Amino acid sequence: MNTVTHQEVQALEAAAPSQNMLLVPLSQLRPSKRNVRKTLGASITELATSVERVGLLQNLTVTLASDGEHYEVVAGGRRLAALKLLAKKRRIAKDYAVPCLLVADASARTASLTENVQREAMHPADQFEAFADLIAEGRPIEDIAADFGVTPLVVQRRLKLANVSPRLMADYRADTVNLDQLMALAITDDHAAQEAAFYDAPNWQRNPTALRERLTEREIDAHRHPLVRFVGLEAYEAAGGGIRRDLFADADQGIYLTDAALIDRLAQDKLAGIADEVRREGWAWVEAVPAATYADLQAFQRAPKERRKPNAREAKRIAKLQAKVLEVGEALDAALEAEDEEKAEALQEEGERLGEQLEALEAELLAYGSTVRAAAGAIVTLDRQGEPVIHRGLLRDAEAKALRTLARVQGGIDSEDTEDEDSPEPKKAGISEKLARRLSAHRTAALQIELARNPQASLAALVHGMVQRVLQDAHAVELPIGISIRPQDRLEGYAPDWPQSPAAVALRELQQACGEKLPEDDAELFAVLLALSQDELVRLLAVCVASTVDVVSSREHDASGKVLAQAVGLDMAAWWKPTAEGYFSHVSKAVILEAVQQFAPGNVSRLAKIKKADIASEAERLAEGTGWMPAMFKSEDSTSAAQDDAQQESSQNATNDTPEEAAQEAVIEMEAVAEALAA
């Protein structure tokens, strides 16, 4: 195309704008510094795809460059970039004729600003409906996606939004419903369900997560549910199971199973197959259940394992490791005396590694004897990740008693010389009464916050005590709830660090969140409470009941609150950590070493030679992150917790929340009640 001369340009500028249209070769176009749009955005590739398929639908606005050979684009920089990209990919010619509007040099910046400012973007709702109209015209999704340079999923999402209830779409246009809410509601095509989920919910329950959960409450989230992970989504679909997909979720999320009964049956069948394999080990009974809680397992006693004699190879390996541990221990002592910290650290790590290998070898030598297997049983279940877990060596009370009787008979022990079954074990070196009260104070605080987070358990605890007192003419002995309403909030006398503990802080925040919204006038308070829903009232009750919990005791093995702790799934590791100040400085050196043997066995010999003052801080460092808890915070029934299964279950089911995160979670859970009270 011939170059336009200055005289021609001047003539064009003097003419009407409609007559200033030119077809300019792409090679003669370049961006102008006077283009007010400085940021082109990240969608040039998509725009280029669209231009290639449907053509350039809007001209560029240009001025003649000073060299008289080129034109500078003052409006249409994104379109120019898209055309240049197509030319670079050889999709169009380098001299492709581009329609341009020529404007006077003096008005270039005004023309650029006018095009970018005066243009009003299409409302997203109009875009959704336009996509639906294209489908109604018979256009395939893939073609529409290609026309606009987007993926088919983007088109499917626009179509899904176009199918939302007309009432909700009208409110979206009026800005009373936002896009995130609309995407959550689009998980179902049922307009009545969409409207009920949104309009029947109070404002504070209209967030996208709450809306999505309300519409899928009868379905199973494939991303999080252990049964789905165990059975497998493909197996479920192959069995005819229905699925609902959330197009707006991430790639590995947003899949909901609509047939809960089917996934339960498939899981049960698969677990039954594993149970058959376990049954062939010789157990008296084997049960397969998809879920077994801590309380379920506490109903059983654990059968003892027997240590078999190691074979020649194992004995040689054990002796070699023991010799190596001794050698490393001596080298570590020498390094510590020489204050060679780097070498000492390396030797300490090696000692820990050797200790772990020894423990693993010893564990392999422990097994259930044939007599035990003939009386005991096993439960096959799933952990939270959907992985099979086998709890072997479970004994019902009658089976445990029979095994003990058999052991006495086989051992030739006369019953008169045998201690009574229920007689207490010889007392071991333990903790002082003062420390017991301190630890039980922290346990009280943890039980209080956990109960406050569990309205069902809180209500059950309250009713339990009232039934015993009113209907059974008895005093509650298991659940430490003061029905006379005596809040236990003076734990500082037992544990000086209680006020700053995560559990105490979390409970105070819960109490403040609820209490500050309540009127102090008696009649006015009753009216406010009467207006609350039953769910809100029960949540408020949970906070109040929790504050009456009191399990402070001077006895290390006091079982107060055991049932309550099991009901709320109390995990002291979420609320308390063993520190020098809070624990190790208050027990004997022997107790510290016994504890270290459990969480860092490779360090026992080294710590045994250190002064008591230094051992406490070192024990705190070694215990960090191990999850170790004093015996007082563990299950009261030591006979019902075999070390192997208990450790496995703990590692698989332990929460990853820090105490601070757990406390924050507790406060968040009560925001609903606080907002309801404010309303």
UniProtKB/TrEMBL annotation:
Keyword set, alphabetical order: Coiled coil
Domain ParB-like N-terminal, chain residue ranges per copy: 22-117
Coiled-coil regions listed in the entry: 337-364
InterPro entries found in the cross-reference section: Chromosome_partition/occlusion, ParB/Sulfiredoxin_sf, ParB_N
GO BP, one annotated term: chromosome segregation
Comp. bias (Low complexity): 638-652
SMART domains: ParB (SM00470)
Pfam families for this protein: ParB_N
Entry annotated with the keyword Signal: no
Record's GO cellular component terms: chromosome
Domain of life: Bacteria
Ranges of Acidic residues composition bias in the record: 414-423
Annotated spans, Disordered: 412-432, 636-663
Signal peptide: none
Full protein name: ParB/RepB/Spo0J family partition protein
Protein's organism: Zoogloea oleivorans
Lineage of origin: Bacteria, Pseudomonadati, Pseudomonadota, Betaproteobacteria, Rhodocyclales
